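Continuing the batch. This is chain 6 of the set; chains 1 through 5 are on the previous pages. Same settings as before, nothing changed between runs. Recording input and output for traceability.
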Amino acid sequence: MAFGHANIMRAITVDDDQTRDNLAMVFAVPDLPPAEVVGFVEVLLRRHESLRTKYRLGPVVTQHVAGSGEQAIEVVEADGDPSDTAERTAKRLRARPFDFQEAPPLRVAFVTQDGLVRHLVWVVSHLAMDVAACEILLREWSALTAGRELPPNGPQPLDVVEFERKPFVRRLTRASARYWESRMRQVPQAMFPVPAAATSAKTDWRHPGLRIRSQVAMTHLAAVAERTGASPSTVLLAAVNALVCHYTGLSTCVTTSLYGNRVFQELGDLFGTISQDALLSVPVPETGTFDELVRVLRAESLTAYRAAWYDPAEAWDVITRVTAERGASYARDLVFNDMSPLTGTGGEAERSALKRLPWVWIPGGPEFAADAPELDASLEWLPAENVPIRFIVYVYRLDEELDVTFLADPLCLDRDGLTEFCRGLLRLLRAAAERDQPLKEVAALTALEPMARGDGWHLADSCWIEVDAVRGLLADVLGDRPHHVAAVPDEALGRRLVCYLTGPADPEDVHRRCVERLPGRVTAITPHEYVVCASPPDDPADTAAWTARPVVSRSSGRGGPR
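Output for chain 6:
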C-alpha cells in the first residue's frame, strides 16, 4: 500500500468506531431511468480501482483489485421529498462498518420517484477515497449525467506504490521522519489540557458544529493575505492559533493540518486516498503582531507540508520512541482541514453546499444571508458529529465567501464558549484587515475568558500539567509503595517533575510503565527525575521531608544516571 493509504488503514483499524471514516455523498440525477444510471455507476467502477478493491489484513496488508464482479445497488422509493429520503438513506448506509476483506468498501443506492432516479447515494470508506477524490467523483458524475465526455483517467492507488519507490521520494520520507522527531521533542503534548477529573469519565465524542459564512470576512482575509504575502488559508489558521493560545495560555500553538499530498503533477488526479498529517508548530508570543504570526506560520507551513509525505511505519516508530524518551504523549487535539482548494469544480451550486463532510455531503445549498449583522456573517449550529478530536476546523470555501465549521469538545468549549470563539475570530480578522494587530490586544476582541486553572497547574516542558494527574499516573504504577511527586522550579523546563520513591526500585521500569499509561492523560507527563530514597518519611505527602531522606540513587528513568 502507498504511505497515505496505509496510514488511513491504520487509523481505521485502531479506531473503536470505524464508521467515523465512512464518507457519504448525495448527488442529483436529472430524472433518468434506473438502467441508464446503472450504466453510469459501472463506468465509475471500471475507471477507479479503489472502488473494487478488497484488503487482506495481517502483519502486511495487501490489496486485491477485482477485474470483474457485481455491485449491489439499493433502490429506495422516495417517501415525500426525495432529498430528505436520500439524506436519511445516506446516514443509514454510513452507520454500518465495512468488512474490507469480504467486499470493496462501497455502498450505492438510488432514490426513485415515479420510476425515475432522482438522487444517487454514495457511501464509501475513507480507505477508498479522500476528499479530493470526492471532488473528482462529483466532476465525473456531473459530466456523465450531462452527456459530456470524461477526461482521461488519472493514476490508481497501485501507481502511487510504484511512485513511492523512486529514490527522491525515499529521501523525502527520511527527511520527513527527521522533521517529525524534531517537532515531537518540543511541542506541547496537548493544546486543550482538559482536567483529568473531566476526561476520565468521557465516552461520548459527539460534538455539535458551528458553521460560519461571511463574504465580508473573506475581504478581511484577502486584505491581510495581500499585505503579508500569505494565502487566505494561512491567515485563517493564524487567527485560529492566536485565539487558541489566548484561551489556553500557551505561547506555542501546534496544529495538525491535513494535507492532500497531490503536489506532484503525476498524482494530481489520483482517485484514492493519499492525504496525511502535517505538523505545524509556531510561537505565538504576546509581544508579537498578527502579521508576524502569519509570516512565521507561512514559513513553517512550507516545511511542514513537505514533511507530510512519510512512511507511516517510520513515523509511528519515531512518535513511539520520542514519547518514551520525552515522557509526553502527543494528543493531536487541534486539527485544521482546509478543503477549499478542492471545491467549485461543478459550478456555483456546489460551492455553497447544503451539507458538507464529515456529515452527508449534499452539493447545492442556499445563498448566503447574514443572521449576525453586526459581524456581517451567519452562524449556524449543526447536528452533533462523532469526531474524537477536541477541536477541529473544516474549511470549505475561501473565495468570494468564507465558509468554515468548528467542532469543539464541550469539555474544552461549551456552546457559549465556541460561539464567542467564532465571534472573536471574525472581530480579529476585521481588526487585522485595518492594521497589523498586536497579539496582546487579542483579548480585547473577544469575551472568551482564558481557561481557569487552580493550584497544582504548572507549565513543564511546554506542557500544561496537573501535579495531581501526574501523582495519579504514578499511583497507578506504584500502587501502595511510598512515593511522592513534586514540581520544582527549573530554568529550562519551567517546572521539573521529581518522583521520590523507596527502594529497591528500577526507575527505568517505572518510567516504561508510566509511558504505557500516558495516552489519554493530557495533563500528565512522566517525571523528569526519579530519586530513590532509603526509607520514606513519616508524612509521604511532605516534599521537604522527602528531600531530607538519604538518597540511594538518582535517575531520569530513560537509561543511565541523570
